[in-house]
Amino acid sequence: MQGFLDHLAESTAWMAWTWQTGLFFVALAMTLTVMTWLAAARPEAPRVGVLYFPTTRGDRLFLSLLGAAFIHIGWIALAGGDLVWASGLSVIWAMAVFRWV
Q1: Where would you tag: which of 20, 58, 60, 74 has the fewest CB atoms within 10 A of its CB?
Q2: What is the number of other CB atoms lying within 10 angstroms of the CB of residue 51?
Q3: What is the CA radius of gyration of the chain?
Q4: Which residue blocks in 1-101 are alpha helix, DSSP H?
Q5: What is the pLDDT of residues 67-92, one digit of tens each?
Q6: Domains of the chain by residue range
Q7: Selected residue with higher pLDDT from 28 and 8
Q8: Please, what sign has the CA dihedral across residues 51, 75, 25, 27?
Q9: pLDDT tens sequence across 12-45
Q10: Please, are residues 100 and 50 in contact by the beta-carbon 8 Å criterion?
């Protein structure tokens, strides 16, 4: 196991890993795991929302993640500084997407 961890550390040494970056990827992996479990446990029929084409949970997750990325990039470009407000806006965006799209 130690050999694997040493190899992993050596392979990813060029990346700027912080605990926040690790937390993001762990949260993303957990989200995908839960979405996969939901798809198996509670299959969903696509529904038509404000976009007037059928979307599934996975489609709405993708749209919310894509929107969150654009919100954060726009926040950095226009406001700079602390991203807490951009993260809050992204959560509101995701709730709206899952509710109405």
Answers
A1: 20
A2: 12
A3: 17
A4: 2-11, 19-41, 57-78, 84-100
A5: 999 999 999 999 988 899 999 999 99
A6: 1-43, 46-101
A7: 28
A8: negative
A9: 788 777 888 889 999 999 999 999 999 999 998 9
A10: yes
Contact 80, 29 (CB under 8 A): no
- Position 9: which residue type? A
The number of angstroms, rounded, from the C-alpha of 89 to the middle of its chain's C-alpha atoms is: 14
Angle between helices 57-78 and 84-100 (to 10 degrees): 150
Q: How far, in Å, CA of 23 to CA of 17, rounded?
A: 10
How far is 60 from 98, CA to CA, in rounded Å? 6
**How high is the pLDDT of residue 6?**
87
Give the integer Cα–Cα distance in Å for 32 and 36. Answer: 6
48 beta partners: 54
- Residues recorded for the chain: 101
The beta strand positions in 1-101, using DSSP E, are 47-48, 54-55
The 3-state DSSP class for residue 43 equals coil
pLDDT at residue number 17: 79
